[in-house]
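Note to self: user wants both folds in one dump. Writing first protein now.
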Amino acid sequence: MNLPTPDPFLDVVVHDLGSEPRLCGLSVGYERGQWRYTQFADHLMEWLPEFSLTYDELEEMNHANAVSLFRKAAKIIYNTGKFKNRGEFGEILLHSVIRQVFNSIPAISKIYYKDSANDTIKGFDAVHVVDTDEGLELWIGEVKFYKDINAAIRDVIKELRLHTDTDYLRQEFALISNKIDKKWPHAEELLRLIHRNTTLDEVFKRACIPVLLTYESRTVGEHNSVCDDYTNHLKAEFGKHYKIFLDSGLPNEIIIHLILVPLERKEKLITCLDDKLNAWKHI
């Protein structure tokens, strides 16, 4: 893929791969005493083309057509209807995080394949792969772009139980299979992995679910710079939320990565993202 990957933005505060589920805690940070709303929004906008466009479009992206494709990507997000309430910003964040932290590769752009302008994209919030020495891993993500961490945990647990049901997975894999570009380098291997004749026992050995939850954080609100006190309190906050998530009754057949992204004020961030997206739409 010719499109360069945006530079890393989020700081990794906690990255525990030894626990089950695994835990990753991230920080947006501050600049001149303020939480980095504008910089965070700018970073997420850099991911728009890769999040929204097809493999063919990204392969053809160059200096001559970059602006027009950015504009198209912004319009695709807007055309999903009430995007502010429906989580597209959260899906962009999930996409960017698993790309940055876990070096994943997007398999399909689900938002591009929406059924109509007013339909929520059903199923997993991200479909990526990670190419390892042992073979291809399937990363099927869930995100809750929320203010309240307890509500985020409650709602995502319900979806995890539903989305790991055998019939649901088979239906979702069939939909994913129909949307994979056959020219994509990993198409053949992924199609074999999610084929109806491949036992789910084998799939679960090579799959994981990254679960990204945002929430308005007391620690973030009480600080204005990254310092030892901020980092220590944030780690303690992550540990508290991790335990609640762990005790909520998780599916035990598949690896889960819990990813926590604390916010200062969600509505202010959405306003900033909306402004950036609207600007790109009209360039």
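First done. Writing the second protein, which came from a different request thread.
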Amino acid sequence: MQGKILRFDDVRGYGFIVPDNGGQDVFVHANDLLDDKTAFEPGSSVEFEVLEGDRGLKAYAVRLVDADDASPKPRPEPAEPVRPAPPARPPALRHTVTVQDDDGMCDVLGRGEFRQELIDMLLSDLPELTGGQILLLTDSLTLLAQKHGWVED
């Protein structure tokens, strides 16, 4: 398959690919990249193979299409054959919030820190969401938080 990198965090080691032929975004882990992980930026064209993982589609054997090194690289075989995903069930949210300030106040996060917390929570608790859905939710919730003064600009 071919697509473009939607988002890739080389520090955390994962991201998402938007397939050129449409469909849901595909999760990609740094261990499945055939080129230097720092070269994968939003908008980069890639070729990849897909398998159905525990949490949805997962890319492997991912390489940059426009990479300077055009020499062929071996493509690893998937660990298991592609199988249909099990029926979806409601996710069990794993994030809890506790307030321990004596004055009943909470810290106000910066906009970037708030967005990163949201993205991490959505990836962890709702892995079936696409990258586009995560970005839309993050944008909407950030605007709501700014409107109520929950985050700083």
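Dump finished. Worth passing along: The domain at 1-86 is CATH 2.40.50.140 (OB fold (Dihydrolipoamide Acetyltransferase, E2P)).
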